[in-house]
Amino acid sequence: MASYDVTDSAMKGYSLIWNERAYLLRLAFFPFFIKFVCAITVTMNGFDFDFTKQALLMLPSYFADGWVMSHLVRLIYLDQRWPFRPTGNPQNDMAMLRDRAGGIMAGTVCFALIEFLKTGISGFIFTAATPPGSVPGQMPTTPVVPPEGVASIATPLIGIAMIVVTIWVVRYIWLYIPAAAGFSGREYLKRVGGLMGSIRLLGIWMICTIPLAVAYSMMMPAFDPAKPLPVSLAFFMNLIHAAVQMIITLITTAGVAYAIRSMFMPPAQKR
Fold first, then answer.
1. What mean pLDDT comes out for the span 88-117?
2. CB–CB of 250/195 below 8 Å?
3. Which of 7, 22, 73, 229 could be a cystine partner for 234, CB 3.0 to 4.6 Å?
4. 222: left (phi over 0), alpha (psi -120 to 50) or beta
């Protein structure tokens, strides 16, 4: 397992997003608009808890987000900015464009596929955890009676096993980063190492996600999921949610990208 500083990688992610905020605002403007339109479409059609339809409706947003994140990765690894600035040498420019387009396309497709699968898996887990007859997003009025005997022992074991598997799978969520940067995803997985490597990546994700997620949850009031929201309120909430989600994804992508870069650097060059 490659060695790197979890906190330092996360802080570099925060610093980059803040320092490049003007560039990232231009880069993410239209993708953010696509994200918002997809999100409001999901809400207006009542698909907040229908994860299959939600994944299909959000697919354009996944590709738009992947395009932004791929450009962010190229900025971190290769100092490449959008739009492309030709050097004046047609042969070199074409070679650079081909390499750049290949990385952006690979990262975009990989990101969209990962997000699509995440939504589908989340829907499967949510459906399995929702008691029959209950309203999605609400606590059941009738308490669920735990099984007895062997089943009562198996249930926590299954829960622990799912947690371990989830932590292990975390490494695959970031495969779009090596894809966008243009290096081997297999080598990246090899350098992550065992379960501890996934835990370190999970630590970066938590440092980059929790502060904004907590601030967002404190600002947003609670609503009854069984009752539809007024159109104006749904519009505003989806706008804020899309913005927070975009910022969190940018920060986590930058933080993990710095960590992955450290995995491939000789110890003497790590700072």
1. 91
2. no
3. 229
4. beta
Number of helices followed by number of strands (H, E) in the chain: 10, 0
Of 41-50, 86-95, 104-113, the range with the highest mean pLDDT is 104-113
Full residue range of the structural domain in which residue 262 is found: 6-128+158-269
- Which whole-number Å values give the CA distances from 250 to 9, 17, 81, 265, in the listed order? 13, 7, 15, 23
Largest interatomic CA distance in the chain: 75
Do the domain assignments include residue 38? yes
Tokens linked to 195: 């379960």
Backbone φ/ψ region at 157: left (φ over 0), alpha (ψ -120 to 50), beta: alpha
Cis peptide before 178 (omega within 30 of 0): no
Number of C-beta neighbours around residue 129 at 10 A: 7
Determine, yes or no, domain membership for 134: no
For the stretch 52-70, pLDDT in tens is 888 899 999 999 999 999 9
Mark residue 88 as left, alpha or beta (left: phi above 0; alpha: psi -120 to 50; beta: remaining).
left
Query: Cα(80)–Cα(118) distance, rounded to whole angstroms?
Result: 29
In a domain, 148, yes or no: no
Contact 121, 166 (CB under 8 A): no
Instruction: Report how many domains make up the chain.
Output: 1
Task: Give the CA angle between residues 65, 123, 38 to the nearest 5°.
Answer: 35
Return the ∠ at Cα 238 (arms to 236 and 241), rounded to 5°: 110
Q: How confident is the model at residue 84 (pLDDT cuts 50, 70, 90)?
A: confident
- What's the one-letter identity of residue 212? L
138 within a domain of the structure (yes/no): no
* Number of Cα atoms under 13 Å in the Cβ half of residue 224: 4
